[in-house]
Amino acid sequence: MIKNLMFLLPFCFLLSCKTETPIPPVDKKAIVDSTITAFQKTLLEQQIDSVFKKYHFNGSIAVFKDSLPLYRKENGYSDFKRKTKIDSNTIFVIGSVSKQFTAVMILLQMEQGKLNVTDKVSKYLKEFQIKEYENITIHQLLNHTSGLNMMGGKLMFKSGTDFYYSNDGFNTLGKIVETVSGKSYDDNALELFKKAGMTQTSTGDIFKGSNFASAYLGNANKFEEVPNMPKRLGGKEIGTPAGGILSTIQDLHTWNNALYGGKILKPETLKLFMAKSAERRHAIFGKMGYAYGIMLNIGKPNSYFHSGYVKGSPSLNIYYPETKTSVIILSNIADEEKGKGLVFKPHIEVKKITDHLENTLNQLRSGN
User: Fold this and answer.
1) Do 317 and 257 form a contact (C-beta atoms < 8 A)?
2) Sheet strands side by side (includes 223-225)
3) Which CA distances in Å does 71 have to 44, 63, 258, 328, 360?
4) Within 10 A of 298 (CB to CB), how many other CB atoms are there?
């Protein structure tokens, strides 16, 4: 019996060699990519977790590479009185991150032939048909070079010669959208959110949801709720086009992918939206470029971002186009007594972490 088995073994071996499935070639790029992704996840978890711990951060932070979540964490309360925990569906006030939506609405009207960014604002609004304001253009409102501070006041400088950040300028852009479209700002906003695939985003004026993160001043031990939120966002102090949009981590990620992925604006319009046309020195983030409702890093890495702040709600939305990475930081409490520099410390540290990681990844890819 053993002899017979020994006799058959060579034939079995030859048969198995003939029928064995060939080993596919190794996909080195896939292995490298998966290794890099694992490295990113580990590094982000270690470093951003430490930011949560260091600052007792109350809010949500997420990092997405295209559609892949690299990091996500929620901590603390959306309602401090009821001890309602923040979760993935919590809706936050995003403050001046709203400005990019207003800018895109203007550009969509331009694509329809209803205006041009080089047009003078006085063409559309009577209040600009005075000597002080008559030469201000839509472009200058979009990149804060109009010199406008508050409506009715003197210009800070001759239009087009310097930078001065103006909420009233963006609220004016909202009025232009309404004038040329024949629809309210809210209706235009809802159309844009739908086009982008954002299902939980609204303006403060028309918000009817139940997952809203109430805004607070102070800290977890001693806090004061900001009254009349989110309705107050539409008032004169802020203004919906300048800072009155509410959104979630997931929806802002969806927005970044849709906007920079070319699903909202035509290629030439998107290029105009992203083009640096001014520079500013931000009190928190330092020197940077400014486009239409978005800020740009000066130097590496290439990124588009904007911070937002209305009472109790510091936020930051970053997009790195080279790796299609979104970094989103939303919160609903701020200790204003310590100053905005300290309020935004977690946001600054996370941006430094992700800027450094982005530079490292780009160096690895270029082989330098």
Assistant:
1) no
2) 223-225, 216-218, 333-334
3) 7, 5, 20, 10, 18
4) 11
Complete DSSP assignment for 165-207: --HHHHHHHHHHHHHHHSS-HHHHHHHHHHHHT-SS-EETTT-
Alpha helices in 234-344 (DSSP H): 240-243, 249-260, 267-274, 340-343
Judged on CB neighbours under 10 Å (0-12, 13-18, 19+), 95 is buried
Which residues partner with 64 through β-bridges?
A: 69, 326
Is 76 within 8 Å of 86 (Cβ atoms)? Answer: yes
Got the DSSP string for 7-25? HHHHHHHHHHHHHSPPPPP
Q: Rg of the chain's alpha carbons, rounded to an integer?
A: 25
CA atoms within 13 A on the CB side of 80: 19
Angle between helices 99-111 and 267-274 (to 10 degrees): 140
Q: pLDDT tens per residue, the chain (368 residues)?
A: 333 333 333 433 333 444 455 666 766 667 777 888 998 999 999 999 999 999 999 999 999 999 999 999 999 999 999 999 999 999 999 999 999 999 999 999 999 999 999 999 999 999 999 999 999 999 999 999 999 999 999 999 999 999 999 999 999 999 999 999 999 999 999 999 999 999 999 999 999 988 999 999 999 899 999 999 999 999 999 999 999 999 999 999 999 999 999 999 999 999 999 999 999 999 889 999 999 999 999 999 999 999 999 999 999 999 999 999 999 999 999 999 988 889 999 999 999 999 999 999 988 877 75
Name the 3-class secondary structure at 216: strand
Report the C-alpha gap between 117 and 142 in whole angstroms: 9
Contact 164, 149 (CB under 8 A): yes
Tell me how many degrees the CA angle 105-254-292 measures, rounded to the nearest 5.
35
